[in-house]
Amino acid sequence: MYAQLVKTEGLKAAEDMTPQERAFQERIDRNEKIEPKEWMPDGYRKTLIRQMGQHAHSEIVGQLPEGNWITRAPTLERKAILLAKVQDEAGHGLYLYSAAETLGVSRDELLEKLHNGSMKYSSIFNYPTLTWADIGAVGWLVDGAAIMNQVPLQRTSYGPYSRAMIRICKEESFHQRQGYDIMMKMAAGTPEQKAMAQDALNRFWYPSLMMFGPSDKDSVHSTQSMAWRIKMNTNDELRQKFVDQTVPQAKYLGLTVPDDKLVWNEEKGGHDFSEPDWNEFFAVIAGNGPCNAERLGARVKAWEDGAWFRDGLMAHAEKSAARQGALAAE
Ligand code: 3HC
């Protein structure tokens, strides 16, 4: 398999690797976990920092479209569930920033890169949540897509990342179920409620398919990331699995997936479906989606508004350190 990729995708051949690089690749091929203090190629470290950092940013930016609905949830129970979900996303961000810090990058550096636009976060969070049904669609489709991508990442080669993913996936499953539960309620409600559910599906379907990244032919990192087991599947493989899993769920709700070309293909054992509009995807990840400025603005404001608290913590830490130093000197 690796030898084939060397031929077709230009990966470094074993004979061109240093002995250290070869030993590292052999460990990956044996499914061994790589731990923080162990030697790793610079490219492996860099790719992990990029992917884990973007993943962490996605979790905290992902709080914004849903947080917007906490005060407008239709019942106390729905409000409590949504609050728990949004808090979970903050926790996921924290595990992932902590896991990324084990690679030698600080949380402040990562946040600085989010704020100045030099690091990405998931395209999906640049779309607005216009109605309560959107909160259902986000849980069902967005968290559903996230799980499809993240369950395999529990087996990823970097130890701290794979362990963070175990807890995250458990919580994402609850998020997906709560979203589907909202959709079931809406789809079985009044004609107006069902129309809201259909409208939410119409608007979130293609952006959800885009979450898996560009088609394999345009994916820059997949081949090397898969050779290093940083990624376990290609973008198109996961997108196909997501469509095959989600179409029957839409049918159960009595809703229509907004794709005329969607059809079961017996021969391939999966659905044929229309690709998302990739021009739209590339515009969104370049910063020109419907809500990019609003989302980034909210994150930067939160950071700036928290300056007094960080300063207070630092002053307290410095004071405690000075006090301990004085005690030790006595
Ligand atoms: N949104 C924004 N940028 C994206 C993207 C998306 N949906 N898909 C791809 N990109 C970017 C890549 O980051 C890369 O840009 P870069 O070189 O500047 O970093 C470029 O497009 C080319 O794409 P590749 O396929 O080469 O990139 P990757 O190999 O990194 O694959 C990925 C993209 C599949 C998203 C992969 O990074 C991945 O599996 N990441 C971990 C999971 C993750 O980040 N999930 C975020 C989803 S949301 C979430 O988890 C919150 C939950 O609560 C819902």
Automatic annotation (TrEMBL):
Pfam families: PaaA_PaaC. It comes from Paracoccus aminophilus JCM 7686. GO terms for molecular function: phenylacetyl-CoA 1,2-epoxidase activity. This is Phenylacetic acid degradation protein PaaA. PANTHER family: 1,2-PHENYLACETYL-COA EPOXIDASE, SUBUNIT A, PHENYLACETIC ACID DEGRADATION PROTEIN PAA. GO terms for biological process: phenylacetate catabolic process. GO terms for cellular component: cytosol.
